[in-house]
Amino acid sequence: MPSWAEFQPYIVTGLALGGLYALSGVGLVVLYRATGVLNLAFGAVGAMGAFIAYSLIQAGDPGWVAWITCIVFGGVVTLGYGMVFGPALAGRGPLVQSISTLGLALVLFGVIDLAWPTTGGQSPSISFPTDNSGFSVGQLQVNWTQVIALALGIAITIGTAAFLRFSKLGTAMRAMANDREITATLGVPIRRVEAAAWLGCGLLAGIAGIMLADLSALDDTTLTFTVVISSLAAALIGQLRSIPVTFAAAIVIGLVHDLITPITQISNYQDMTPFVLAAIALLVMSRGQVMTRSREEG
Length: 298
Description:
- With 298 residues, the chain is mostly helical.
- The chain has one domain (4-116, 145-297): ABC transporter involved in vitamin B12 uptake, BtuC, CATH 1.10.3470.
- It contains eleven helices and two strands, in the order ααααββααααααα.
- The protein has helices at 4-35, 42-58, 63-90, 94-115, 144-166, 168-178, 180-185, 190-215, 220-237, 243-259, 273-297, and strands spanning 134-137, 140-143.
- Strands 1-2 form a two-stranded antiparallel sheet.
- The N and C termini lie far apart (47 Å).
- The model has no long low-confidence stretch (mean pLDDT 86).
C-alpha cells in the first residue's frame, strides 16, 4: 500500500479534475432540465474546440485568442445544433434525444481524426502560463491552473444554482423541466429559453475542453469520452436535477479516480471509477426510496 506522501499529489490533481467534471455536470443538468436532452456530444464539442485552439497557438496567435475561440466554438456549435434539431427532439423520447446527440459526438470525433491525424511525432499539447507558477502547501506543490479549475467548478455551480433560483430565465427553465406544455401556455418564450440552455451548455463544454487539454492531455479520445462519462456519472448521481449533489459527486469522482493511481494493483481499472461510483450511488438511492415507500405504506 502506498504511503500517505505518495497520495498527496493526487489529491490536488483529483480536486482540479473534479472541478472540471462539476462544471460539465452542471451544464448537462441545466440543458436536461430545460430541454429534456442529455447532451452526449458535450465532450466531443470541447475536444474539437481544444484542437482548434492548439492550431491557433501553433499558427502564432496569442494564447488568450485561442482559448476564447475554443469557448466560443463550443457555444456556437451547441447552440446551432439545438436550434436546428431541438424542436424536432422536443416531442421524442429520452432515448431518441440522447442518441441524436451521440451522432453529433461521432461526427465531431471523426472530423478531429481527419483534421488532426495521429502521427509518430511529438504529441500535441496545450499549456497555460499559470502551469509554471503556484505555491506550496507543506511539501505539496500546487499550480494556479489546478486552482483555477477547482475555482471554476465551484463558481459555476454556485452561479448556476443562483441563476436558476432567482432569475426569470432560470425560473422558466425550472418550469419547463416540470411541464413544457403548461409553461408554453403561460406565455414563456420556449425557444428563447431552450436557446439559452443550449448556449450555456456549449460554453461550458468549451471551458471544460480547453482546461482538460492542459490538465490531462490533448487527445481526442480522452477529451471526448473522459469528460462526458465522468460528468454524466455525476449528473446521474444528482438524478439530473440536483446541482449541489452533482457538484459533490463530481469532486468525489475526480478524487477517487486520481487517488487510485499510486495503487498499482488496481490502477489499470481507474477509468471504471465513474461507472462504479454511479452504480453504487444509484443502488443506495433506489434502496432508500423503496424503504421510504414501504414505511409510508406500512
